[in-house]
């Protein structure tokens, strides 16, 4: 069962999200927060598998809350806004996904399951903007990315390439004939050596280094 924490200051939005998530028998909402500070406190208390976090909230905004939860629990930013500044900050602060509230409800379920499975998820509309942003710096970023990747072991590079394709830990394990725990250990080392906070940033590094094409669910 995938345990989800909802964080949104609008009760009707939380009710709608709960209704959508309830259509999947493998997902349950364990707590709801009406502001960012409460979301952080409830995340530590309940340790959900995924946090769905609105950006604009009182007391502590969703981006700041996501930054506090980096490394504690995966956070998917859920918002009506897709401005580049929000996307860039969310990814830089360690969010594992970015989903627009206007998206198809089925996309919400896909995102929750992907992130709970150890993958990352960007709404296709957001992914397009991220990739476009990468291409504006295509002359300088690849060299930096390749230098970072050179610090990895051959096996870690294998894992990173598959992360760049959007595969989950389980899928990477099957591809490389590794135990899922071994994949997680490699990923921890990869994040540390690349000096990135999560799979999204690692996947972007793999793309910039020429190790992977932009996957559909980075």
UniProtKB/TrEMBL annotation:
Residues 145-210 form the HTH luxR-type domain. SMART domains: HTH_LUXR, REC. Gene3D superfamilies: 3.40.50.2300. Pfam families: GerE, Response_reg. It comes from the Bacteria. Residues 3-116 form the Response regulatory domain. Keywords: DNA-binding, Phosphoprotein, Transcription, Transcription regulation. The keyword Membrane does not apply. One of its GO terms (biological process) is regulation of DNA-templated transcription. The modification 4-aspartylphosphate is found at residue 54. CDD domains: LuxR_C_like, REC_NarL-like. InterPro entries: CheY-like_superfamily, NreC/VraR/RcsB-like_REC, Sig_transdc_resp-reg_C-effctor, Sig_transdc_resp-reg_receiver, Tscrpt_reg_LuxR_C, WalR-like. This is DNA-binding NarL/FixJ family response regulator. It comes from Actinophytocola algeriensis.
């Amino acid at each position: 069962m995938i345990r989800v924490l909802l964080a949104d200051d609008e009760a009707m939005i939380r009710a709608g999200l709960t209704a959508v998530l309830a259509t999947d028998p493998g997902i349950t909402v364990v707590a709801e927060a009406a502001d960012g500070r409460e979301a952080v406190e409830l995340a530590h208390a309940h340790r959900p598998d995924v946090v769905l976090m609105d950006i604009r909230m009182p007391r502590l905004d969703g981006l700041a809350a996501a930054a506090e939860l980096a490394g504690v629990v995966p956070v998917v930013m859920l918002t009506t806004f897709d401005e580049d500044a929000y996307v860039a900050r969310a990814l830089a602060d360690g969010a594992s996904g970015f989903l627009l509230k206007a998206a198809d409800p089925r996309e919400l379920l896909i995102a929750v399951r992907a992130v709970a499975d150890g993958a990352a998820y960007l709404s296709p509309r957001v992914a397009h903007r991220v990739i476009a942003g990468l291409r504006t710096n295509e002359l300088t970023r690849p060299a930096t990315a390749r230098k970072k990747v050179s610090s990895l072991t051959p096996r870690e590079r294998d894992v990173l390439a598959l992360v760049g394709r959007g595969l989950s830990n389980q899928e990477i394990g099957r591809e490389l004939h590794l135990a899922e725990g071994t994949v997680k250990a490699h990923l921890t080392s990869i994040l540390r050596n690349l000096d990135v906070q999560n799979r999204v940033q690692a996947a972007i590094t793999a793309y910039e280094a020429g190790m992977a094409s932009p996957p559909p669910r980075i």
